[in-house]
Amino acid sequence: MINVNFPVDFNINNSMKKTLRFLNCSSLHVSGLTSVDSGQNHISIHSCHHGTFRYITLIAPDESPNTDGIDISNSNNIEISKSNIRTGDDCIAINGSSSYINITELTCGPGHGISVGSLGKNGTKAEIEEIHVKNCTFNGTQNGARIKTWQTAAVQISDITFRDIQGTSNKTNVIKLSCSETLGCTNILVENVNLTSTAESKEAYSSCVNAHGRSSQSIPPIDCLLG
C-alpha cells in the first residue's frame, strides 16, 4: 500500500505546467492535492489498480483548452471522492480498458463534465464497464452525464450509473449518451438526476445513440434510452 498525503496548500503553478502521472501503480491512496492554473492536464492515472483519490482540488481557467482534471485509462477499482474540479475540459475523463471506477461527492464545473470516452478513434477497440457516478454537482458545465464514442468503432460499454446528480449546464444537451452504432452501450442507469440549462430561453434535453438501459426521476427526461 502506498499513501501520498499532500499538504492542503501544495500547488502546481504556471511555471511548472506538468501533468502528475500515476503509472503502473497498485494500492495507491492520494489525499489533499491542490493544483492551480496548470497549463496541461492535471492528473493522469494509467494502468493502476485499487486506488483512492480524495480531497483533490484542481483548478484551471474555463477557457483553457485540453485541461482535463483527471484522465483514467487501462485502470480498475479506482475511487475518486470528496473533490472539486474546475477546468477547461473534462473534469474526469474515463478512457479505454477501465472498469470499476467510482466517482462520488464531486463538484465539477466549469468544464465539460464527467465523460466516459472519447473512445474508438481510428477504429480502435475499447471496453469499459462498471462506471458509477453518484452524489455529484455540476456548475455550468457543457455536459453533465456524457458517453462519447466514435460511431463506427468497436467499443463495448456496459454497466454505467449516473445517480443523485444535480446542477447546471451552459449548453442545452445536458445528458448525452452517444454509443457505438455497432456494439452500443448496455445496462445504463440514470436515476434521480436534475440538470438544468443556463442557456437563455432554452430548455435542457437529453440525447442518445444506441444506448440501452433505464432512467427514473430524471430532469430532463431520457426518453431516448432503449430497453
UniProtKB/TrEMBL annotation:
Entry-linked Pfam families: Glyco_hydro_28
> Catalytic site residues?
112
Q: Name one GO molecular function term.
A: polygalacturonase activity
Compartments in which it is found: Secreted, Cell wall
Give the superkingdom in one word. Eukaryota
Spell out the InterPro entries in the cross-references: Glyco_hydro_28, PbH1, Pectin_lyas_fold, Pectin_lyase_fold/virulence
Principal subcellular localization: secreted
Keyword terms, alphabetized: Cell wall, Cell wall biogenesis/degradation, Glycosidase, Hydrolase, Secreted
Q: Which SUPFAM superfamilies does this UniProt record tie to the protein?
A: Pectin lyase-like
Family classification: Belongs to the glycosyl hydrolase 28 family.
Q: Write the protein's name.
A: Polygalacturonase
